[in-house]
Specification:
Number of helices: 3
Structural class: alpha+beta
Number of domains: 2
Strand order of the largest sheet: 1-2
Shape: rod-shaped
Order of helices and strands: HHEEH
Largest sheet: 2 strands, antiparallel
Radius of gyration: 23 Å
Strand content: 15-25%
Helix content: 40-55%
Distance between the termini: 57 Å
Number of strands: 2
C-alpha cells in the first residue's frame, strides 16, 4: 500500500473511534512531518546558449532553474521539468538581436 492509502485508512479509523480531536490533530501533524522527511526534491538547471551562425558577435545565454517536489525521483523530475517549461514559456527577455 502507498503512504497516502495507509494515511487515509488510519485517519478514517481514528475519526470513527472515540479518540479525541487533540490527539488526532497531533497524529496528523506527525504524519505530515514524516511525509516531508520522505520527500525528494529535484533541481534542474538549463543553460540556453545561442551563437550567431556567422561567428560575428557574442552569443547570449539564459539560465533557468526549477525545483520539483515528489515522493519518487520520477515525480520530482517531472514536476521540475513542468516548472522549467513554464519559466521558459513566460520569459519575455529571451530575444535575439544579432
Amino acid at each position: 500500500m502507498s503512504y497516502i492509502t495507509d494515511f487515509d485508512s488510519e485517519l478514517v479509523a481514528k475519526l470513527e473511534s472515540n479518540e479525541g480531536t487533540e490527539s488526532i490533530v497531533k497524529w496528523v501533524s506527525e504524519k505530515v512531518l514524516q511525509s516531508y522527511k520522505n520527500g525528494i526534491t529535484a533541481t534542474l538547471r538549463l543553460d540556453v546558449t545561442v551563437m550567431p551562425v556567422s561567428g560575428q558577435g557574442d552569443g547570449k545565454t539564459w539560465t533557468f532553474t526549477a525545483y520539483g517536489p515528489g515522493f519518487t525521483k520520477e515525480v520530482a523530475n517531472a514536476t521540475a521539468e513542468e516548472r522549467l517549461i513554464k519559466q521558459i514559456d513566460a520569459d519575455t527577455k529571451m530575444v535575439l538581436n544579432f
